Amino acid sequence: MAGQEQIRPGRRDDGPDDLPPPTPAAPQVQSSDIDDILDEIDGVLESNAEEFVRGFVQKGGQ
Amino acid sequence: MTVRRVMGIETEYGISVPGDPAANPMVLSGDVVTAYATSRGIRPARASWDYQDEMPLRDARGWDMGRGIAHPSQLTDVEDPTLANVVLTNGARLYVDHAHPEYSSPEVTTPRDAVIWDRAGELIMREAVARLSTVPPGVNLYKNNTDGKGASYGTHENYLMSRATPFGRIVRDLIPFFVVRQIMCGSGRVGIGVDSRVNGFQLSQRADFFEVEVGLETTLKRPIINTRDEPHAVADRYRRLHVILGDANHADVANLLKLGATSLVLAMIEDDALGADLSVVNPVAALRAVSHDPTLKRTIELTDGRTLTGLELLTEYFDRAGRYLEQRYAGELDADTAEVMHWWGTVLDHLRRDPMEARREVDWVAKLAVLEGYRERDAMGWGDPRLRAVDIQWSDVRADRGLAHRLAATGRLEMLVDEAAVVRAVTEPPTDTRAWFRGTCLARFADEIVAASWDSVIFDVRGARVFQRVPMLEPLRGTKAAVGDLVLGAADAEALLTALAASAD
């Protein structure tokens, strides 16, 4: 899709210093569970993430 | 004292039109309320809001803010006929608050019921979205609290408290709890800073928007303890504590703990049984520091000189609650209190072993697990827009698009209440507060009600020359047990008012 970011090789470490370290490697059963979740989310996630995020603008409330 | 008390949750939903960020959110929010009201046969002109007892500028510290110096957004008691505002048969209020549609739940007495009627609100918003989707591009609603660009909107809790409790003690003993409560109740957020200027993940949607410890404002200079003193009840007896720093939850356990643990801490404060002062140094900075640390390792300083992690401080509150309940009830807890203590202890254990173990119970952990999965699989940095898209879409109210709903539907979130109870709560009020009277009157006599509010119902009885206002300043009166026979046995509003008058003699 237009506007979709390219997948970058290797994790980009662009967070602040105080970010959490990556979570420890999960047991195999949980890893495949996460893969299942991601597959499912891939199917419904807004295809143009950048435009979707840019378009989500709210007025302040209470 | 237990977890039981009169309480409720009010939620402002994020609102947007796909592909049209410039759409007017006030008009859209009115459309949401009107669409739902129309689907239920409610005419917003009838059953509108009675503002007589609204006092948004009354301060719990004992004074009124002058109207001249109030920000226009604080003048919530001025009726604007262009804004839709209805009371529902479940006792809730559905209306436009500033630029968001808001669902204010009916008064309930248990954390579990608070979760049920909060989720009912989400079904109501989902129904409105479905109705509006028939005219593309429709309107989308989000049960979240920030756009990540500098704007925030609230999910407020309300707790009825004894007026006798000194407000200063509430402030002292509650602030440290609120600094760390987000560890088990936060909904998670991609982005650090009100406008997400630093990439990263934090526990809470709201933490970065709080600037002071105590204050009356809710839309600017937001305070950890809000002093709005508008009890909607007998003011001499009750205070309504208006809590504005919480996040909207999707995880039932986190939502139950938000209401339940807070109610228990308030019980200890009312009983003056909390024990030694747990005040933290610079609470506003500590609130943010805790939120910015998903490892839960960072420490905060207490004014007594101790240095604790947020989790240790939260555990201190849990331990004190356990001892308090042991002293008061010797282990014989009612089911609602036992449930809250069970989950509070379970979640603390999970978080202590490995925060990721709480992914079934706590929103921010569930969200972080998904985000870390993406980061691992697709090698994304925290600035990747897809991670922010996940964060926003997490809270989409639609069952097929909302990511939290997808997780729940596939058994990945611990569900405490079943869907059937939530569906019933869309139309039925809780039976054990005045919300039962309000909601049931609206279900039975809608054509003869001109307005309602938290503490009144105003009838326009056929043939009568004046409106008749039934005040309901005692939140635990008007229950099904107290007036069920009267209300259900009355053929019309006139018969109801006659029966009520006779029962008062």
The best one-word shape of chain B is globular
Order of helices and strands of chain A: HH
Give a count of the beta strands of chain A, DSSP E runs of length 2 or more. 0
How much helicity do the residues of chain A have? 25-40%
What are the segments of chain B in which pLDDT stays under 50 over at least 5 consecutive residues? 65-73
> On the 0-100 scale, what is the average pLDDT of chain B?
92
- Per DSSP, the total helix count of chain A is 2
Largest protein interface, residues of each chain: A-B, 42 and 70 residues
Tell me the radius of gyration of chain B.
Answer: 22 Å
- Terminal CA distance of chain B: 33 Å
Instruction: Summarize the biggest pleated sheet of chain B.
Output: 6 strands, antiparallel
Q: What can be said about the biggest beta sheet of chain A? A: none
Strands ordered across the widest β-sheet of chain B: 6-7-8-1-10-15
N→C terminal distance of chain A: 37 Å
Give me some keywords for this one:
heterodimer, A: 62 residues, mainly alpha, 2 helices, elongated, disordered N terminus, B: 505 residues, alpha+beta, six-stranded antiparallel beta sheet, four-stranded mixed beta sheet, 39% helix, globular
Short description:
With 62 residues, chain A is mainly α. Chain A has two helices and no strands. Chain A is 39% helix and 0% strand.
Describe this structure as you would to a colleague:
- The complex is a heterodimer of chains A (62) and B (505).
- In chain A, 39% of the residues lie in helices and 0% in strands.
- Chain A has helices at residues 28-44, 49-55.
- Chain A is elongated and about 40 Å long.
- In chain B, 39% of the residues lie in helices and 17% in strands.
- Chain B has 14 helices and 20 strands.
- In chain B, a hairpin with a 5-residue loop joins strand 6 (85-87) and strand 7.
- Chains A and B meet through helix 1 and helix 2 of A and strand 2, strand 12, helix 8, helix 9 and helix 10 of B.
